[in-house]
Amino acid sequence: MKVGVLGSGDVAKTLAGGFLKHGHDVMMGTREPAKLKEWAGKNPKGKIGGFPEAAKFGEMVVLAVKGTASADALRAAGASNLSGKTVIDVTNPIADAPPVNGVLRLFTSLDESLLERLQREFKEAKLVKAFNSVGGACMVNPEFKGGRPTMFICGNDEGAKKTVHGILEQFGWETADMGKVEAARAIEPLCMLWCIPGFLRNDWEHAFKMLRKG
Ligand SMILES: NC(=O)c1ccc[n+]([C@@H]2O[C@H](COP(=O)([O-])OP(=O)(O)OC[C@H]3O[C@@H](n4cnc5c(N)ncnc54)[C@H](OP(=O)(O)O)[C@@H]3O)[C@@H](O)[C@H]2O)c1
C-alpha cells in the first residue's frame, strides 16, 4: 500500500519505518525536509515531501503531528488529497500546559474529542483513531511477556477500520473496535493514563491489554 505519513517527529518516523518494514511504500510529509535527513539516510526506500505531496501520494494517510497543529496539518495537506482515504489519526489533544503530578492536560473535553473535530471539518476523509494509546518505542511489533497488546480504535467508516485492523495485525497488535468517532472521547485520554508511570517512575515500556472472560 502507498502510505503518506504527515509529520517528522518520533512517532511519524517510527510508524513510517514500520510501514517500510512491512513492505509498504512510504512518503513522509513535513514543512521542513531537513528534519528528516537522518531518517532518509537510514531509510533509503522512504520518500520525503511536503504535507500535500505526502497526502496525495498515500492511498492511506497517517496523521502524526502535534495535537494542537493537527487541523492545520490536514488543512495544509489539502482536503481534496484526503478525500475518500483512510486517515489513521495518531494525535493526542495534549495541551501546552505542563502535567500535574504526572497527569497530562488536554485541550478537549470529555464531551468532544479531537477526532470528532477533525472528522467534522474533513468530512470526506475516513478518519480512524489508532496508535495513540502507546509510546512510540512500542508501536511497531512490540514484544511483551503478556502477549499481543490491544489497540483501541474508532471511526465512522467500517471499511477504513478494516484496513487499520489489517495494519495493526502486521504491526503485532490485537484490535478492539470501540465504534464511531465519539469513542475517541474515551480513547484519547488513555494517553494520560499511559504516560503517568513514565512521568512518575520513568517507566515508558508498557501497553494496554483487554482481557475477556471465556
Ligand atoms: N510521542 C509518543 O510516544 C506518542 C505516542 C502516541 C501518540 N502521540 C501523538 O502523536 C503525535 C506526534 O507526536 P511526536 O511526539 O512524534 O511529535 P510532536 O512533537 O508532538 O509533533 C511534531 C510534528 O508536529 C508538526 N507540527 C508542529 N506544529 C505544526 C504546525 N503549526 N503546523 C503543522 N505541523 C506542525 C511538526 O511538523 P514539521 O515536520 O513540519 O515540523 C512535526 O512533524 C502527537 O499528536 C502526539 O500526541 C505521541
Q: So how many helices?
A: 9
Task: Give the bound compounds.
Answer: NADP nicotinamide-adenine-dinucleotide phosphate
Kindly estimate the percentage of residues that lie in beta strands according to DSSP: 15-25%
Report strand order across the widest sheet: 3-2-1-4-5-6
Biggest sheet features: 6 strands, parallel
Order of helices and strands: EHEHEHEHHEHEEHEHH
Summed over residues and divided by their number, the pLDDT gives a mean of 97
Helix proportion: 25-40%
Shape: globular
**Rg computed from alpha carbons, rounded to a whole number of angstroms:** 16 Å
List low-pLDDT spans. none
State the end-to-end CA separation: 36 Å
Structural class determined from secondary elements: alpha/beta
**Count of DSSP strands:** 8
Note down, in words, how this protein is organized:
By secondary structure, the protein is of the alpha/beta class. 35% of the residues lie in helices and 15% in strands. The chain has helices at residues 10-21, 37-42, 51-57, 70-77, 79-82, 114-121, 158-170, 184-187, 190-201; strands at residues 2-6, 25-29, 47-49, 60-63, 86-89, 126-129, 150-153, 174-177. Strands 3-2-1-4-5-6 form a six-stranded parallel β-sheet, with helices on both faces. The protein has a two-stranded parallel ribbon with strand order 7-8. The mean pLDDT is 97.
